[in-house]
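Budget justification aside, the reviewers requested a transparent look at the raw inputs and outputs of the sequence design task funded under Objective 1. We therefore reproduce one unedited record. The lines immediately below are the structure tokens for a 431-residue chain.
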């Protein structure tokens, strides 16, 4: 009953418009009070110390700073323009640039919102001016933007690892192949849709010289080198994710300087945005640790295991229930909040069902992607719409619906073939 009251209060506060941070905090404190009275708050100091004393979480501000330096330097435009010449003759033309560019930028941004914002700011005006249909532009940008939390390094995966004590390196390895495959599915859909309806995409007849392709490649190669250094140092065991984040910051500074886009003003703004974003993320973690402590103290996880066992529920049915839950919550909450609230509660059930925590990390991140695209209130829909005043949220919603269905199909595929996520971490780090 205490758990039902606490979760009801949490949902009511969120639906009432209160910030997720404070809604979770109020529900957590109320939960502890219902169980233990004010004496239940005596452990808050211990819980807050345990939440903040984490070398793993130190990776978050480093990856955010790396992305902010690249974004503040305007290098996302160079990346986009560097990829475009190689995509222009494919069915779907520059729409593939939205997907590929988002995938590459995701590997340095670590989050969906920065990826979607960076690509949308460049692509929406450019492709609209070329005559591309706005809905398919917006849909591809929204779908591509969600790759930011799947393709490593991913801040969402770091948060998941914090709550489940799962290896971040294995999670990063597990997310790489599904991220590439999902991006490939998006591109295949774009190509098929363009072939069926050529009016969506104007034909590009511009003739480019070899020098044009070489110049474009120079805008992409530095990003690929940076990604290789960051992920390579993690997969090879040379550096921890936190140390790799520091390497990424240095690499971002070097790239910005090489393109003559580095200045004290850009660094100050990047550091300022990093402090705000890191404070936001880490505050969610801190508050959610209190909520996780309350749920652990109440034994609701064990009760859930007993209920699932008595109901003789299969893992597939349980995962489908989670899919619906995340899709609905995505209309009201950001991804980190969903993971921080739900994962600690259901994790005992996962262990009882022998579901691999590394595989589930990838599965839950894709669920968060789904939630961020859930019409009509998914956060990425508004990020893309706000990037161009001529694009309405309704356009983004209609454009993203096919990609929403692709994600649903991919989740089912991931359940049937778990090695899609587990092959690389098993090969790289062993069983």
């Amino acid at each position: 009953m205490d758990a039902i009251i606490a979760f009801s209060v949490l949902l009511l506060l969120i639906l009432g418009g209160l910030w997720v941070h404070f809604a979770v905090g109020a529900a957590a404190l109320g939960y502890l009070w219902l169980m233990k009275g004010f004496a239940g708050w005596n452990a808050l100091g211990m819980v807050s110390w345990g939440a903040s004393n984490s070398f793993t979480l130190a990776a978050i501000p480093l990856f955010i700073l790396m992305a902010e330096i690249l974004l503040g330097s305007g290098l996302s435009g160079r990346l986009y323009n560097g990829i475009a010449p190689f995509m222009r003759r494919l069915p779907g033309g520059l729409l593939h640039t939205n997907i590929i560019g988002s995938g590459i930028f995701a590997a340095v941004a670590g989050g969906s919102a920065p990826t979607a914002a960076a690509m949308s700011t460049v692509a929406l005006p450019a492709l609209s001016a070329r005559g591309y249909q706005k809905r398919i532009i917006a849909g591809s940008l929204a779908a591509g933007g969600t790759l930011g939390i799947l393709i490593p390094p991913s801040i969402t995966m770091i948060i998941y690892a914090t709550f489940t004590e799962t290896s971040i390196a294995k999670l990063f390895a597990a997310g790489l192949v599904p991220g590439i495959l999902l991006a490939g599915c998006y591109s295949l859909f774009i190509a098929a849709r363009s072939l069926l309806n050529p009016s969506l995409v104007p034909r590009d007849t511009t003739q480019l010289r070899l020098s044009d392709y070489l110049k474009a490649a120079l805008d992409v190669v530095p990003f690929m080198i940076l990604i290789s250094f960051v992920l390579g140092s993690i997969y090879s065991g040379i550096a921890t994710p936190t140390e790799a984040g520091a390497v990424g910051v240095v690499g971002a500074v070097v790239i910005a300087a090489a393109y003559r886009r580095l200045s004290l003003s850009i660094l100050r703004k990047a550091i300022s945005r990093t402090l705000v974003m890191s404070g936001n993320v880490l505050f969610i973690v801190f508050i959610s640790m209190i909520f996780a402590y309350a749920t652990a103290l109440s034994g609701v996880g064990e009760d859930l295991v007993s209920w699932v066992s008595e109901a003789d529920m299969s893992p597939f049915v349980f995962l489908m229930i989670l899919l619906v839950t995340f899709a609905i919550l995505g209309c009201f909450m950001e991804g980190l909040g969903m993971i921080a609230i739900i994962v600690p509660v259901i994790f005992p059930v996962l262990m009882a069902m022998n579901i691999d925590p590394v595989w589930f990390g990838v599965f839950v991140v894709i669920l968060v992607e789904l939630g961020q695209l859930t019409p009509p209130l998914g956060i990425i829909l508004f990020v893309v719409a706000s990037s161009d005043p001529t694009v309405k949220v309704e356009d983004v919603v209609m454009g993203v619906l096919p990609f929403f269905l692709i994600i649903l199909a991919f989740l089912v595929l991931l359940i049937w073939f778990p090695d899609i996520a587990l092959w690389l971490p098993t090969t790289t780090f062993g069983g």
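The radius of gyration is 22 Å. The chain has a mean pLDDT of 82. Computational costs for records of this kind are itemized in the attached budget.
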